[in-house]
């Protein structure tokens, strides 16, 4: 270990954290969160409350609205931006967990999912070209315990025992507004006792050198497991607008630390310990997986891994060659696909043009017909008009003649009378 | 032949006391209605029996609700400082506790049948079987007493009159386990479903949850108490229709008293308010209590005796007619049928 030296002047490497900060901000962050629990425990509501987004809304209802026959693993991604920092958040939901009559092995699909994510990461880590390594490993698993007030159910214990070595497990008491403060205290003690009894290793908050932080951490540790209430509806209480649940006997406020531990969970998960969760996933759980996987290979001498994740013993050059070939074939395939798509589009366009041409032709015909019809109509009208006119002229002449005749008659009469 | 109908004049009880015939000057009074008084006296001497079964996952407040209903600790001993050794039993157990309680001279033998371990395992397949076996065993015991040559004057009634099923307040829909259980048991016993721990639902959530439950019950053909087909007349139907609009009742139980507005009430105290158990604006416990105890208790017992028990009896007697085997073999066949 080197000796600690005091500097005489300002060198400037104190700005390293800033550089890291700027780079991270540019790169953006990723975080994958898994929620597990029986349906109806408020998982979707809690996720919506934590990240203040409508991940599950009326148009895209959460998986819990449909009871599933088998356990499914569903992923939803959302990109959140705040203060110039962007977070790609992936929520992994597990609808159907614990809902069936027979729930044996309902944890198996979840374990398989976590392992497959580790496997993907292991493969991408072993490639020669590692420019892009998307990290889709599960960083944290929130396990929802039903607020029975008695203790853990056999299913809870089984699940946590199988998953505590693979992922950071954070147990939560769901729908905590159903417990009075005394019942909550009792329940928490009982749960922690059972967790210790079964030697379940839930996520541990790291000790730091900072005295202040240690106090905060100790406060959190005393309140484990956290009792949470989720809500997205905003209610007015004493003139303030708060998130909460409205009951006939009062309003349970989500962000009031007297009412529930939601703020502690949010601060811990997002504001203070997100990076630590990722680090523990990377350094502990992933390394466990990796060493187990690789030990299996070397112990047997035969490549036990599936064809997809082959760790060959070829030289890097040969591997590079292989990767290049792979890449080239992939490109060719993409090119072919694109050409196909292009041809299809061209055909579509041509067809469309033909169609519009035919349409125009038809319209042209139609218009001509209309015009002719109008022409005929006008002719007809004109004829009628001519007829009328000649009739009228005839009549006029007749009238005139009559008038003449009557006038001459008058004249004659007058003449006659005079005589 | 013609029968004359003598209409008795209405009998107004004289101020000296109930049940005393007025001796003075009422010659057209026969006294038929005094039979009500005689029945009442006899019933009070005999006392009543009520057997309630509570079914639901552990932690839904079954014991607390029983204690609240009968205002005393009638449920199995669930001490608050539970020792860590108290485990969820591996199979469904049936625990039956009887109490003799008395109110205003009326005695009642109340039996609360608890079913710890129901729905608590990882694999809950067939967890309803022990319960169905128990119910049928009670019917069997009663049947055996009935077909005795020397019958007892009053056969002790251990048949389950009513089964209260606790639905967890998920707010979404019934779970497969709930549907399975209620489907099978609504055929042998009166089921009253309730939403447990209803203080976790807001009023809107409660209404939509109830609607979903009612639809699912209808869709699965589950007939809960009060059953539509057993309504005797229009008046019954009206009252029962109102009840049917409200099931399942959203209940909250508590055996602790708090001071609210100068009164001591049963309730639950949280940081944001106190939930009053008997306040119908808060929860529907009062409706459940009225249904079970104050208005429909006799009706529940009648339906158990005249319909569910009779169905069982007919089945058993048909079987014993059809087969020449012993009673034991038939009993086995019955339990396999479930």
TrEMBL record, chain A:
A biological process from GO: cell division
All copies of domain Septin-type G, residue ranges: 27-296
Residues in coiled coil: 317-415
Domain of life of the native organism: Eukaryota
GO molecular function: GTP binding
Keyword vocabulary terms for this entry: Cell cycle, Cell division, Cell projection, Centromere, Chromosome, Cilium, Coiled coil, Cytoplasm, Cytoskeleton, GTP-binding, Kinetochore, Mitosis, Nucleotide-binding
PANTHER family: SEPTIN (PTHR18884)
Protein name: Septin
TrEMBL record, chain B:
Keywords: Cell cycle, Cell division, Cytoplasm, Cytoskeleton, GTP-binding, Nucleotide-binding
A single MF term (Gene Ontology): GTP binding
Listed PROSITE patterns: G_SEPTIN (PS51719)
Domain Septin-type G: 46-319
CDD domains named in the record: CDC_Septin
Top-rank lineage group of the source organism: Eukaryota
Subcellular location: Cytoplasm, Cytoskeleton
GO biological process, one term: cell division
Region entry Disordered, spans: 1-25
GO annotation, cellular component aspect: cytoskeleton
Cited InterPro entries: G_SEPTIN_dom (IPR030379), P-loop_NTPase (IPR027417), Septin (IPR016491), Septin3 (IPR008114)
Residue ranges, compositional bias (Basic residues): 1-12
Short name of one Pfam family: Septin
Family: Belongs to the TRAFAC class TrmE-Era-EngA-EngB-Septin-like GTPase superfamily. Septin GTPase family.
Protein's name in the database: Septin 9b
